[in-house]
Design a protein that fits this description.
binds arginine, D-Maltodextrin-Binding Protein, domain 2, 37% helix, alpha/beta, 284 residues, 6-stranded mixed sheet, 3-stranded parallel sheet, 2 domains
């Protein structure tokens, strides 16, 4: 797609007389490599792979930030290293791009600001939002999600009206936090913000919060982990909107189209579906 745009652009400029028409004869391959070079920002290195030039913070490496406390998308495995669907997906993307992937576990709330300086990409079940788009670009969406409500089993909370006057637990800086904050701003709720979602669920069990708002799949995992104690309710009951997960990338980076290309290939060759059944469906 990038090739197409670059070619089209040079053709348009040529017609407009703004650039030498000879550049139109440049092959699509050359057009792409020169546009990748142009977008290399100071301090980054370039690794040559058969997919073209891939520019990352450290040559030959893709540093991916995540917050490994969000099962089944990311969690710490038995060996203490980040694992989960997103971790497997970014490693598969790295393979396609010829890059070694290093996954860094960090606070969810600092991921967006770290993209392009501490990390090359953030992959963390991160929902595409208008606010985040001010700071980063997103890959094509790879998973559809919705916020769920976790309540103590037997709770009478069942619809949006029931949230009034309640204390809501959320993970700081998440879309669940944004929904709860809107309720708080309207004077309808109190919000307790946690660095880790599981701490909010523990406080739900202790009775310190009345409900937790969190994405569907982690909600279902927590429901299973705290069996009999908590119940996960579909966000549709509360009129929560559909969200889309995507990988956050530096604004304007050539990595955006490279990651999208790799993602498309993984969908086409069946790897993506395999990871969905291995990590997500099995956890349900
Ligand atoms: N989808 C939500 C958001 O983007 C929550 C993501 C939390 N992810 C995590 N790894 N803790 O805000």
């Amino acid at each position: 797609m990038k090739k197409g745009i670059a070619f089209l652009l040079s053709a348009v400029l040529c017609v407009a007389g703004l650039t030498a028409c000879s550049s139109q004869t440049t092959s699509a391959g050359n057009t792409e490599s020169s546009s990748s070079t142009e977008s290399t920002s100071a301090g980054t290195s370039e690794a040559k792979t058969d997919g073209g030039a891939v520019s990352t913070l450290e040559e030959g490496k893709l540093i991916a930030g995540t917050n490994a406390a969000f099962p089944p998308f990311e969690y710490l495995g038995d060996n203490g290293a980040p694992d989960g669907f997103d971790v497997a997906l970014i490693k598969a993307i790295g393979d396609k791009l010829g890059l070694e992937v290093e996954v860094q576990d960090m606070e969810f709330n600092s991921l967006v600001a770290s993209v392009g300086n501490k990390i090359d990409v953030a992959i963390a079940g991160m929902t595409v939002t208008e606010e985040r788009l001010q700071e980063v670009d997103f890959s094509d969406a790879y998973y559809e999600a919705v916020q769920y409500v976790i309540v103590p089993s037997g709770s009478e909370i069942a619809s949006a009206d029931d949230l009034t006057g309640k204390t809501i637990g959320v993970q700081l800086g998440t879309t669940g936090d944004f929904i709860a904050t809107d309720l708080e701003d309207a004077g309808d709720a109190t919000v307790q913000r946690y660095d880790k979602a599981v701490d909010a669920v523990n406080d739900l069990i202790n009775g310190r919060v009345d409900l937790v708002i969190i994405d569907k799949n982690p909600a279902l995992v927590f429901e299973g982990n705290f069996e009999g104690k908590v119940t996960a309710l579909d966000g549709a009951q509360f009129d929560f909107e559909i969200e889309n997960y995507a990988i956050a990338l530096p604004k304007g980076s050539a990595l955006v189209s490279q990651v999208n290309q790799a993602l498309a290939e993984l969908k086409e060759d069946g790897t993506f579906d395999k990871l969905v059944s291995q990590y997500i469906e099995e956890a349900e």
